[in-house]
Amino acid sequence: MRLNNSDHIPRRYEQMKDRELVHLFRKKDDQLAFQELMNRHQAKIYSYIYSMIQNRETANDIFQETFTKVITKMDDTYNEQGKWIAWVMRIAHNATIDHIRKQKRFVDVSSSYDEESKTDFYERLPDEDTPGQHDQLELNESTSRLLKHIGNLPEEQRTVVMLRHYYEMPFKEIAELTDVSINTALGRMRYALINLRKMFDEEHEKESNNI
Amino acid sequence: MSIKKTDSIAYLFKEMDPSEKVEFERLLRSNENLLIEVESLRNISNRIDGLPEISAPDNILQSVCERASEKNKSPKFVRSKPFFFATAALLSIGFMAGALLIESDESAKSAGNASVGSVGSIQTTATTNSAGMATDREITPWVDKNDIIHYTGVESERQDSLLENSYRRLTPVTNPSQSSSYQRNLHLTGSRQ
Predict the structure, then answer these.
(1) Where are the domains positioned within chain B?
(2) A148 lies in a domain?
(3) Which of A96, A157, A205, B134 could form a disulfide with A153 if both were Cys (CB 3.0 to 4.6 A apart)?
């Protein structure tokens, strides 16, 4: 997904590898190279953050925070041998998880099922953290539903699903990023898919009953 | 082949070795429940594949690009080449001067010691602690041309008692083959003047 105002970027930049663009930006302060990198990756990074947080404003903040770190730390901590996008992704992931954990601490509720309200932690989260009336994104209905269900998954399952979907990240890399074994990462994906299937089934059942 | 719970995910997401894949497909043909699970997981996975990419808002992208363009505009001392080289030169001159000063100080000290007339001197700071001999003064042993050890900084009678003490500590070598390889060309001849 390209930037709206990216027509001025010469075609030769499109043919360059990420590594070359990063080098141009770092060593020659080439802004076009940075814009081309943004063109290539911003949507994936934003989608990951948004799908994890499911709030437009917060996603915007985390996206900006991520790129502020990318710009300021690129000279010091980025090693050009590694993939640039994997490095950026790690920053985005850490910023997102930090935010989610802060929120959890702030909300201070247990994730156990509440007998009284017949809801679990994720259902009891404030509305502003789920796509709904406050959300400014216009998505089609099935995408909205899917995002809502993904938002209801436990954080570690959601992380594996989104990292795999938006980055096609191998499970080995997901395991490294989330500091678990490959088997745990695969297991989380399995539980995520099973949970999503249950959510869709329940939803389908409700709709059938309403008819 | 025993089936692990994660095998179906590894198969769906193409994370199996070719041999594992062949074996798993063979199991799929013979195990209906496994086939149902895999197809059910595939169905959900396909739904996720349909999730679109969401672009960041234009104003956010613009502000990120602006920040990137400002990155190198902020004054950084290191980026000013003449200033960088001048600082580096000044620092290296400083270090060299410091090193020379230290060196000259040390050589002056060793020259002072040499003037005592020693052929080979060993500088030690000793704090002895035998009866009435506790002292913080610097005792410098040195060896004369005849390989006789002397101590500077000690009066002659103290020197005698010091030597006496040293001799008492000497023990005869019982097994020369086990003696340490550490050797010095210093002979305690015990000559007393």
Answers:
(1) 7-49, 118-171
(2) no
(3) A157
Contact B44 A164 (CB under 8 A): no
The tally of domains found in chain A comes to 1
User: What is the DSSP-derived secondary structure letter of residue B79?
Assistant: G
Complex-level ipTM: 0.76
Chains A, B: CB pairs < 8 Å: 109
A180 within domain boundaries = no
Task: Tell me which residue range forms the domain holding A68.
Answer: 1-118
pLDDT tens-digit series, residues A157-189: 999 999 999 988 999 999 999 999 999 999 999
pLDDT in tens, A112-125: 555 555 555 555 55
Measured CA to CA in angstroms, residue B165 lies from A105, B162, B187 at distances of 73, 5, 16
Residues of chain B with pLDDT > 90, as a percent, come to 27
Task: Look up the CATH number of the domain holding residue A79.
Answer: 1.10.1740.10
A197 lies within 8 A of chain B by CB: yes
Q: Is residue A160 part of a domain?
A: no
Distance from CA of A71 to the nearest CA of B (A): 6
Q: What is the dihedral of CA B30, B36, B39, B43, to 10 degrees?
A: 180
Nearest-by-Cβ selection for B6 from A5, A161, A190: A190
Q: Is residue A16 part of a domain?
A: yes
Please answer yes or no on whether B5 and A187 come within 8 Å at the CB atom.
Answer: yes
